[in-house]
C-alpha cells in the first residue's frame, strides 16, 4: 500500500536523488531511502518505477545536450560514447546549481585536467577555448573605443594611462594548439592534437565571437593591460617577464590591431 | 477579459534563436512573442540584443522554467531581481512560470518536476506565489505542467489544486491545453473536466504545442504540430475564457518560421473576428534588420584560420 505521509521536502529530496542517480532507475530506486511504490502510483500502462524512470532518463539526456552545445568540439573529438561517459561523471561532481544552463560547464576544463583521461591536456585546452567562447558570447556589451583613441593620448600621459578592456574578452595561454584543432572541427576536418604553446585572445565584436592568435610577447603585454595595469606598468611587467622592453613598432602594431578589433572600451588616466 | 485586465495579445509564437534572422529580417506579422526568461537574464550578447530589438516592435511576455515555485529551497531573490529587471527592460506584459519544482538542496535538475497535490503543498506554493508576485509587482501567471507521475500523497486533482492556488495567491493562470491532454493520457482523466473546472476569469494566456505519443505514455516534447484533440480542447477553453492570448510552443526539431507561424495561426479559427484588443499587439514599423550574425554557432573572424 502506498504510504501517504511523506512531507513535501523529503519527497522532493527523494525524487531528485532518484532522477539524478548516475546508474539506471532501478539501481537509483534501490539506493533511495523510500520505496518507489510507496510514493508513486501506477498508471494503467506503467508501473511506478517506469513512470519515475521517464524523469530519470530525461535528466541525463538534458545534461548531455546542454554540454554538447557548449563543448561541441570536445564532444566530437571524444565521440558520443566517451563524451556521454564524461558528462555522467562530471555532473555527479559538478551538478547544476544555477537557474541557467550557461554555468553548467564552467568546471569542465578543470575536471578534465584532474581526470585520468587519455589526451587530457589537449582536451583541457580545447575545453578552455570553448568555455572562453561561451563566456565571451554572453558577456555584457560595451562600446569599443574609436580606432584612434589610444593614439590620441597626450605623450606625457601615456605611461599613466589605463586601457580598459571590453568585458567580452578572454586571454588564453595553452599547451596545445587548441585553436587549430577547433578550426579543424569547424571546417569538418579531423582534429589533430599538436603540442605547442599558443596564446589567444577570444573576443566579441558586433555580437560575433572571434579567436585572435597572439605572440607570447603580445600576450604578456595584453595580459598586463587586462589586469588593469597602466601602460607604463605593463611595459615594466613585459620587461620583467621577457627581459627586454617592447619595441615601439611592436606597441604601435599591437594597439593598432587591438583597437581595430574593438578590444578596449575606455581610457583612464591617473 | 481576465480579472487582471491583462490584454488579449492575439496569437503569438515562442521566440527561438533559430528564427532570429528571419524575425529581424522579415518582421513577420506576428501579434506577440514569448521569450524564455532564463535565456536572456544572464547574457549581454546576441540573444539579449535580439530580444530588445524585437521588444521595440512586438509585445513580449516572459516565460520561465527555473522559478521552482513549488520547491522547498528558499526562493532565489537574485534570480527574481534579474527577472524583474529584464521584464522592465522589455516591457513584459506579464511573467509566467510553471506549477512545479526544479531542484532542491541548491541543485537544479532543469526539469519541470511535478508536485503532490495536497494541503501542505498548496499552502507552501500559495505563500511563495504571493511573495513572488509582491516582489515582481505584478501577479505571477502560473502554468499547469505536463507530468508523468502521480503521488500517493496527493489528495486533490490538479485542476482543483490549481483553482485553489489561484484563489489563495491571487495569481493568473497560463492554461496549457497540450499539457492537459498529455497529463490526461498519462494519468487517465477526462481533459474536458479539467478545462471546465478552471476559473476562466484567471486565465491570462493559453499554450499550444505538439507532443510524442509512445503508446503507454505521452512525452511533452514541443516538437510537432498540434493534434486535433488538443485543438478541440483549445476551442473548449476559448468557449470559457473568450478570446485569450494564445501562444504556440515549438522547442525541438524546429521548422522554419513560416511553418511555426502558420501552425499558430490555426488558433484564429477558434477566435472571434478582430477580437484582439486595439493596440495590445501587432508590430510597429521600424526596421529590425541587422547585419550582425546570429547566435551560436559562433561566427568566424579574420583570425580564425591560422
Give me a quick take on this structure.
The complex is a heterodimer of chains A (270) and B (306). Chain A is of the alpha+beta class.
Q: What do you see in this structure?
A:
- The complex is a heterodimer of chains A (270) and B (306).
- Chain A is an alpha+beta fold.
- Chain A has a domain at 114-269.
- Chain A contains twelve helices and five strands.
- A three-stranded antiparallel beta sheet of chain A has the order 2-3-4, sandwiched between helices. In chain A, strands 1-5 form a two-stranded antiparallel sheet.
- The radius of gyration of chain A is 25 Å and the shape is elongated.
- The relative contact order of chain A is 0.10.
- Chain B has 306 residues and is α/β, with parallel strands linked by helices.
- Chain B has a single domain (11-270), classed as Divalent-metal-dependent TIM barrel enzymes (TIM Barrel), CATH 3.20.20.
- In chain B, 35% of the residues lie in helices and 13% in strands.
- Chain B contains ten helices and ten strands.
- In chain B, the strands form two sheets. In chain B, strands 1-2-3-4-5-6-7-10 form an eight-stranded parallel barrel, surrounded by four helices. In chain B, strands 8-9 form a two-stranded antiparallel ribbon.
- In chain B, β3 (60-63), α4 and β4 form a beta-alpha-beta unit.
- Residues 277-306 of chain B have low confidence and may be disordered.
- Classes of the chains: A alpha+beta (270), B alpha/beta (306).
- Chains A and B meet through α1, α4, α8, α9 and β4 of A and α2, α3 and α5 of B.
